[in-house]
Design brief:
heterodimer; A: mainly alpha; Four Helix Bundle (Hemerythrin (Met), subunit A); elongated; B: mainly alpha; Cytochrome C Oxidase, Chain A; two-stranded antiparallel sheet; 21 helices
């Protein structure tokens, strides 16, 4: 029905008649462009951290604990109730570790898929990756409840919590992708595309692990 | 430019679809988007007022934010934006007939109100949206100019005036960002490169409907107390603004999603979907402009996203990124904003400039003069534009030592800009110019953009900027650039591609009337504002000293004429679209691919696969032949 050459065309109708290779090329480029844009977002987060820390306006980087009833004012010393404590480092580092581990599992799944074409083993590795990712999200949620400061506790607390929000948004998107890949592999509906989809998922996963790890290191060792 | 393969096939539009093709899409359209959006927004409002209002300081901000986010998500669920990702998650691939349905087969005019994946439908949807946005923004501009008719006017309260200035600014920024990359990079560009569609048709539709879902959030600001902080919404003004500020930020965050998706789609389409023989050397200049503009947007928009996200967390959760009293700094916001803001000017400008170059070659019947240099100029502008942002902050006191370097980079940007001008003038030089309506706008673009560009050099100069920065000179400058340059370039593009998009010709006589009204209106309006600036009138003021009265009267009179010109143009577009003279496949005798396909353009554009064998602008070199993919194939 379609005019397009099955091997070389691209279809207006959602790519139904595209070759797998053509589709993969498009998706790879799109993913790298998305990562480039996300990279700008990531760099600006890191910039915000160091900029606010460096300026330390009114000594309030970690110098004041404010509350709704007694908001921080000029920061001349009189309103500072106490130094804002640092967040426990093990939470951030554990999350980073779990996400890296999760990325390693997906990497392994992709290698297995490419070299051995073994769907069962691939599904197992993806499952393991998902479990570690979910564990990472769980630890991140735990960290939210265990923070020794609130959003209103000055700039250190602000950027720290913003980092957490950013990481959790990325992890949720990764979870969505991971669940879809896992489900399609499990159902066998990924057919010919499955290795290529895994490769794309791996690239994204590694980027999320890298950016999350950098944010964890920054917020742990440069507070 | 083309030869054809011998194979041909029946039109996809004639496919008889399976009874249930499309699945859930069959029941979804803008109306269901509206209903689900309102329902989810109401649920969000109900839940947030029930559970979040306990926080005295941030309760209403939380409610507004949750309601707006719920609306955006609900609208997109209702219109069908998330169908495909959910099906992908569940492992259900769409069938060929599902995809044909999504592309609008068998739905007639109704496809324009649906999540349609055909790039031509999306382009047309964008064109209508842009016209609506310009209508809103223009009406707000008229209210501003009416207020400024007298020094102590009470037509608007100062608060309302400030809000109108803010929303006018943001509506126009959104509209100008999408005015060429929306309609023409969607409708025309894929055909120009010999592609069947955009690389990601569903993302294409997503980018349109996310903008649609953002617009009500922006307009809702009028009913939520207004945004009296200017379109830049600097802190601490934004921190002190009413809850409308939250809706404003949600608008921008949603818009950023749209522009990012559209930018990726445009770049990938051009990189991967060119027809055989369409080498980079043969790419029409408009596709270069679309690609460079799209790529630049990918750099600029994340900065807008983080600035508005941090702003909203400041307001909703009490973080202190930008509030100096709590340890934040407005400079952080200003940096992020202008890291977005200046490249964004070129995200707006580069596509219309490329369209103007494209049009000039057709009507001068000459190859584009120094085409590779013109491409280099656009790349140069894009590259330099990411290194100039702090010239917007010369008067803020931020990093005085960087003033010199930023002045230098800003002035350097006039070099690639000048090169593009030379290419444009070189193309006109000794051309056999066919002065039809699109060319009128090309000439106007040339005139206006030179004024906008030259006045920009004064603003890049540190000492001069100290005087001009806060006054109406700046307003006149950027209107000459964005309205006089970019919007006029877009108007040229509308006149040029209108026959291909609508199958009808624009009425030339009415078009010329609108042209002269617009052309004269622009000069009167913004010369008046330059005069205000020279006299020292500050911008963004609802009332002013009587010494500025005459300049304001001139500017307002010009603005009314200008608006009337746009209204005539809008009338011309609507009436010609309904009952204009029928256009052939290639009324301008152009050599680029979009003019070689039948009008109306069939689904998937080409009845036979094109193979490009010659340059797009070889007017003096390769005669046009009957082998092109013209009406004979219909």
């Amino acid at each position: 029905m379609t005019l397009i050459d099955e091997q070389h065309g691209a279809s207006a109708t959602g790519g139904h008649h595209e070759s797998v290779e053509d589709r993969d090329l498009k998706e790879r480029i799109a993913l790298w462009l998305f990562i480039a844009g996300d990279g700008v977002f990531f760099l600006l987060q890191v910039f915000s951290w160091f900029y606010l820390k460096g300026l330390n306006v009114h000594g309030m980087w970690r110098g004041a604990a404010c509350s709704v009833s007694a908001a921080c004012t000029l920061g001349d010393g009189s309103d500072l109730t106490h130094i804002v404590p640092k967040a426990a480092s093990w939470h951030s580092l554990t999350v980073a570790g779990l996400v890296i581990l999760s990325a390693a599992c997906i990497w392994q799944a992709e290698v297995r898929a490419r070299k051995e074409q073994n769907r069962g083993e691939t599904v197992a590795w993806v499952s393991l990756g998902l479990v570690t990712l979910i564990a990472g999200i769980a630890v991140l949620c735990l960290q939210f409840t265990a923070l020794p400061f609130k959003t209103i506790s000055g700039t250190y607390a602000s950027v720290f919590i913003f980092f957490m929000g950013s990481v959790i948004a990325h992890l949720c998107l990764t979870l969505f992708i991971g669940l879809a890949v896992w489900n399609r592999l499990r159902r066998g509906s990924a057919n010919l595309k499955w290795q290529l989809q895994l490769r794309l998922a791996r690239v994204w996963w590694v980027w999320v692990a890298f950016s999350g790890a950098v944010l964890a290191l920054v917020s742990t060792y440069f507070a | 430019m083309t030869t054809t393969q011998s194979a041909s096939a029946p039109l996809l539009e004639d496919t008889i679809l399976e009874p249930k093709a499309g699945g859930l899409y069959r029941h979804q359209h803008a109306g269901t988007g509206l209903l689900v959006g309102i329902a989810l927004g109401f649920i969000g409002w109900l839940l947030s007022t029930s559970f979040l209002q306990s926080n005295e300081s941030f309760g209403s901000d939380m409610t507004t934010t949750v309601t707006m986010v719920s609306w955006v998500i609900g609208f997109n669920i209702g219109v069908g934006s998330f169908n495909a990702p959910i099906r992908w998650l569940l492992g259900h691939d769409q069938t060929h007939h599902d995809e044909l349905y999504a592309a609008g087969v068998g739905q007639g005019w109704k496809r324009y109100f649906k999540f349609c994946t055909d790039h031509k439908v999306v382009g047309t949807q964008y064109l209508v949206l842009v016209m609506v946005l310009f209508g809103v923004g223009g009406t707000l501009a008229m209210m501003i100019r009416t207020q400024l008719l007298s020094p102590h006017s009470t037509f608007l309260s100062p608060e309302t005036y400030n809000s109108i200035v803010s929303i006018h600014g943001m509506v126009m920024i959104i509209a100008t960002i999408i005015m060429v990359s929306g309609p023409f990079a969607n409708f025309v560009m894929p055909i120009m490169i010999g592609a069947k569609d955009m690389a990601f048709p569903r993302l294409n539709a997503l980018s349109f409907w996310t903008v649609v879902s953002a617009v009500p959030c922006l307009l809702a600001t009028f009913f939520l107390g207004g945004v009296p902080a200017g379109w830049t919404t600097y802190a601490p003004l934004s921190a002190q603004a009413p809850i409308a500020m939250d809706a404003f930020a949600i608008t921008i965050i949603t818009f950023v999603v749209s522009v990012t998706v559209a930018g990726i789609n445009t770049v990938v389409t051009i990189l991967t979907m060119r027809a055989k023989g369409m080498t980079f050397g043969r790419l029409p200049i408009f596709t270069w402009g679309s690609m460079i503009g799209g790529a630049l947007g990918l750099y600029a928009m994340p900065a807008f996203l983080i600035a508005q996200s941090a702003l909203i967390t400041d307001r909703v959760t009490g973080t202190s990124f930008f509030v100096a009293a709590q340890g934040g700094t407005g400079w952080l916001y200003e940096n992020m904003f202008w890291i977005m803001g200046h490249p964004e000017v070129y995200v707006i400008l580069i596509p219309p400039v490329a369209a103007v170059l494209e049009i000039t070659t057709v009507f001068a019947r000459k190859p584009l003069f120094a085409s590779k240099v013109a491409i280099g100029g656009m790349v140069g502008i894009a590259g330099l534009s990411i290194m100039v942002w702090a010239h917007h902050m010369f008067t803020t006191g931020w990093a005085p030592n960087l003033g010199g370097p930023f002045m230098l980079t800003t002035e350097l940007i006039s070099i690639p800009t000048g090169i593009i001008f030379l290419c444009l003038i070189g193309t006109l030089w000794r051309g056999q110019i066919w002065t039809r309506l699109p060319m009128f706008f090309v000439y106007l673009f040339l005139w206006n953009f030179i004024i906008g560009g030259v006045t920009g050099i004064y603003l890049s100069d540190l000492p001069a900027d100290q005087y001009f920065h806060g006054n109406m000179f700046v307003t006149a400058h950027f209107h000459y650039t964005l309205l006089g340059g970019a919007m006029i370039g877009a108007a040229a593009a509308v006149c040029f591609w209108f026959p291909k998009m609508t199958t009808r010709m624009l009425n030339e006589r009415v078009g010329k009337v609108s042209f002269w009204m617009i052309a004269i209106g622009i000069q009167i309006t913004y010369y008046g504002q330059f005069l205000e600036g020279f006299e020292g009138m500050p911008r963004r003021v609802a009332n002013y000293d009587p010494q500025f009265l005459h300049a304001n009267l001139i500017s307002s009179a010009g603005a009314y004429l200008l608006m009337a010109g746009w209204v005539v143009m809008a009338y011309n577009i609507v009436s010609s679209w309904r009952s204009g003279e029928m256009a052939g496949a290639n009324p301008w005798g152009s050599k680029t691919l979009e003019w070689q396909v039948p009008t109306p353009v069939p689904l998937e554009n080409f009845l036979v696969e094109p193979i490009v064998v010659a340059d797009a602008y070889g007017y003096g070199e390769t005669p046009q032949t009957s082998t092109q993919l013209g009406e004979g194939h219909r």
